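Morning F.,

Quick status update on the modeling queue. The single chain you submitted on Monday has been processed. Sequence for confirmation:
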Amino acid sequence: MFTTKSKKKKKESIFFQKNGGAILEQIVKSFNGNCNFIRNYSIEELNKATNKFACEEMMYKEFDLMVYKAVHENRPVLVKKFFKNLSDRSSDLADIANEVAIASQMSKHKNVLKLLGCCLDIKSPILVYEFPENENLQDYCAGGARKGVLPWETKLRIAMDIANAVSYLHHGFSKTFIHRDLTLSKIFLDRDCLAKLSKFRLSLPIPEGKTHVDTEFLTGILGYIAPEVMVKCLWTEGSDMYSFGYLLCALLTEKSVTETFRLYYDDEEDDTNNNNESSNSEEEEFIGSSDMNSEKNSASTNIFMHNFRAELKANVLHHGNGKAGNEVRQADREMSQFQYRGQTRHD
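C-alpha cells below.
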C-alpha cells in the first residue's frame, strides 16, 4: 500500500513538473515572466467538487473537453476537464498552457471569466473558473433554449461589455493579443447578465515589430472569420473586430450566421435564381484557396451590414423616441458610416 501511494505521488510530481513547466514557459514568452496568483487544486478536491466528474454534473461537452458545474468550499465553480490523451502532443499542452497564462492575466478585468486556478498533478490539466450563473450567451440566441429572453437594452450593454474585454486584450499589455476565436459560445453571463469573455487557447500576441500574426492553419467558425484570414491567414486587431461584428449581428437579431446569409440571398437573389442554396453550400463559400474570388469576401460583409442595419431600423420603430430608441438611432448612424477594408499588410 505504501509502495502504491509512493508511485502515485511520484507520477503526480512528474505531471506537475511537466504541466507547470509548460505554463511557466508561456508566461515567460507572453508576459516576460509577470504572473497573477492562481490556486493549485488537488485532484481529490475536484473529484469531491464534481462528484467524481459525474455525468449529471456536466454542463456541456466540446470536441476536446467537458465542462462541469461544481461546488467547492460552498462556492459554485466551473470546471473544465480536457480529454486524457489531449496532452500527448506538446502542441495541445502548449494550447492549455496558453489559456492559463493569458486567462490569469485577463482575469483582473470585470468582463473576463475569472480563472481561479488549475490542477496540474494529472496528465491533462484541469482548469477552474468562476461560475457564470446565467451560463452561455449562445443559449440566448439562434437555436438556444433562452432565445428571446434578453431585452434590447441588455443586449446593447452586453455588446459594450464584450467590446471592453476585447479592447483590454488588444491594448492592456505590452504586447497586442489577438483572440482569434470570438463567437457567442466564448461569452458567459453572470447573475446580472454582465458579459464575461473566455477561452484564450488560440490567442496569440503580435510579434514585436510586426503588424499582424501569420499562422499556418485556419482556425475559427465559418462566417466569423475575416476575409484576410480566410485568404492569407493574417490576424490583426481588425480580425477580432470583424468577428465581433458578426457576434453583434447574431446577438441583436438572434439569428445564426447561416440564417443571416440566407435572408440576404432570399431578398437579393431569389428573383433571378429559384434554386435555393443549402446551408452546406453557403458555408462552402467561405472555404477556398488563396485564389478565392475577393468579391465573395466583400459580399459577406455587405450581407452582415444589410441585415444588421435592418434589425436596427426595426428596433427604432419598436422603441420610438425614448432613450433606447435614441441609442439605436446612434448605432445605426455609426454603422451607416462603417466600411470594412479587407486590406492586408506585409512586413
